[in-house]
Write a structure and sequence with these properties.
alpha+beta; single chain; 1 helix; 112 residues
């Protein structure tokens, strides 16, 4: 019985140590300094903004930065080329979570 308790205690200590070491390698504000993505379908697209419906059914209107990279099936295109219902992966600016830095659209009918 005592061997089991010692083994479990040692295993727990290793887990705590590894977790603490991993957390120490990342900055405390890491979430604020990374770009996040939103996947959804286009409901409205204009030159400087895009409205998408995300996977949870929530509509989000986002500002598209002037230097945003927009691709349609891997080829460069414009925000205004995006039609309603187009599947997109939108990368948000790390500092301004309502501003789009990149849009990757999938317009192919055979998307899986």
């Amino acid at each position: 019985m005592m061997k089991r308790v010692l083994s479990l205690t040692a295993a727990l200590a290793v887990v705590v140590f590894v977790t603490a070491a991993y957390a120490a390698d990342k900055p405390a504000d890491n979430k604020d300094n990374t770009n996040s993505t939103v996947i959804g379908t286009v409901t409205k697209a204009a030159a400087d903004s895009i409205t998408i419906t995300d996977k949870d059914g929530k509509d989000r209107t986002l500002t598209v930065s002037k230097d945003a990279k927009v691709t349609c099936d891997g080829k460069e295109c414009k925000v205004t080329d995006l039609k309603n219902g187009t599947m997109v992966t939108v990368t948000l600016n790390a500092d301004h979570k309502d501003q789009v830095d990149k849009i990757d659209a999938k317009t192919s009918k055979d998307i899986k």
